[in-house]
Design a protein that fits this description.
The complex is a heterodimer. Chain A has no helices and 12 strands. Chain A is mostly beta strands. In chain A, strands 2, 5, 6, 10, 11 and 12 form a 6-stranded mixed sheet that branches. In chain A, a hairpin with a 2-residue loop joins strand 7 and strand 8. By secondary structure, chain B is an all-beta fold. Helices cover 0% and strands 50% of the residues of chain B. In chain B, strand 5 and strand 6 form a beta hairpin. The chains are: A mainly beta, B mainly beta. At the A-B interface, strand 6 and strand 11 of A face strand 5 and strand 10 of B.
């Protein structure tokens, strides 16, 4: 079945460092890909999405490119802030998955001042 | 512009009691999804409903759990005779259609004593 694999956390960086959180997927069809962010004690917020190969999703300085050849959707940000500390989830959605969102396990990001 | 509203935010129950979790979707959304998040884990799909109909309940435990989304009022996730293992965060999401992005509530954190 469809699945999503994320790099394990926690990822600890200093402020203004470059961020990459890896995400790879397995899907039989042509999924849409998402990054959600969960701040402590809160629900999940859609951060960005991409619906087809080579699409780049971007929001709040974060971006991710849908790479079909490597089945990846890595999240990047050029200069992180303390306020970016949260858990980041990669997810896919495909008609073949009966419209369920399939989730990665989440990567906790800690940014130190 | 109210988002997805879940209540209560925190719910404490003793073993054997019933837990009722409520979810009001975003205005204009008729598709509701329930997910469970165990500590330090990602989200697991439970059930997908569209007004008065259960579309997919493949993630629901076979016993004690039920969900409904009546014509009027919020969607309800009911857990009967709760056990310690039911302690988790339960998230509701809604969408305008089955192929539209899901928007999440802040979750209900259920603790079983």
């Amino acid at each position: 079945g469809d699945s999503v694999t994320q790099m394990e956390g926690p990822v600890t960086l200093s402020e203004e460092a470059f961020l990459t959180i890896n995400c790879t997927y397995t899907a039989t069809g042509y999924p849409s890909l998402f990054w959600y962010v969960q701040y402590p004690g809160e629900g999940l917020q859609l951060l960005l999405k991409a619906t087809k190969a080579d699409d780049k999703g971007s929001n709040k300085g974060f971006e991710a490119t849908y790479r079909k050849e490597t089945t990846s959707f890595h999240l990047e940000k050029g200069s992180v802030q303390v306020s970016d500390s949260a858990v980041y989830f990669c997810a896919l959605w495909a008609r073949d998955s009966n419209y369920q969102l399939i989730w990665g396990a989440g990567t906790k990001l800690i940014i130190k001042p | 512009n109210a988002g997805v509203m879940q209540n209560p935010r925190h719910l404490v129950r003793r073993r054997g009691q019933e837990a009722r979790l409520r979810c009001s979707p975003m205005k204009g959304h008729s598709h509701v999804y329930w997910y469970r998040q165990l500590p330090e884990e990602g989200l697991k799909f439970m059930v997908y409903l569209q007004k008065e109909n259960i579309i997919d309940e493949s993630g629901m435990p076979k016993e004690r759990f039920s969900a409904e989304f009546p014509k009027e009022g919020p969607s309800i996730l009911r857990i009967q005779q709760v056990v310690r293992g039911d302690s988790a965060a339960y998230f509701c999401a809604s969408s305008a259609d089955r192929d539209q992005p899901q928007h999440f509530g802040d979750g209900t954190r259920l603790s079983i004593l």
